[in-house]
Write a structure and sequence with these properties.
The protein is α/β, with parallel strands linked by helices and 132 residues long. Helix content is 45%, strand content 18%.
Length: 132
């Protein structure tokens, strides 16, 4: 499965990549990571239909992951599940507004992130099977 990681911070993208690894759980497929640092590239990938799960950093500038998530959920046909990385507990309401499917706080706990990504991969697999 292809997982998109959006952050303007290369260190954040690396932490996410390392936490997910090649396979975040034994019962999900191997992962191919696609990294993006700009909003236009994220929209291009999400619109392509080639992304199975998107991980968006809520702190990315100038277009934060929450706004990108809201726009994708409103505009992308068959939008993949989106996981938001938030820096502050109080940002949870914004994550709900953005229609994110999962939220993980920073600093990242690799086990929490891997479990959340695996859950979204399972969700995406089942929704694609039911659609066929």
């Amino acid at each position: 499965m292809r997982v998109l990681v959006y952050s303007d911070d290369a260190a954040t993208r690396e932490k996410v990549r390392l936490a997910i690894g090649r396979r975040p759980a034994a019962d999900v497929p191997f992962v191919e990571i696609v990294e993006c640092a700009t909003e236009p590239k994220v929209h291009q990938w999400l619109g392509s239909g080639d992304i199975d799960v998107a991980i968006l950093d809520g702190e990315t500038q100038p277009a934060g992951g929450m706004g990108v998530s809201k726009q994708a959920k409103d505009e992308v046909y068959d939008c993949p599940p989106i996981l938001l990385l938030i820096a502050r507990r109080d940002d949870r309401w914004l994550a709900d507004w953005s229609r994110a499917d999962a939220v993980v706080p920073q600093p990242l706990d690799p086990m929490v992130l891997a479990d959340a990504v695996a859950d979204l991969m399972r969700k995406r697999s089942s929704s694609r099977l039911n659609a066929k």
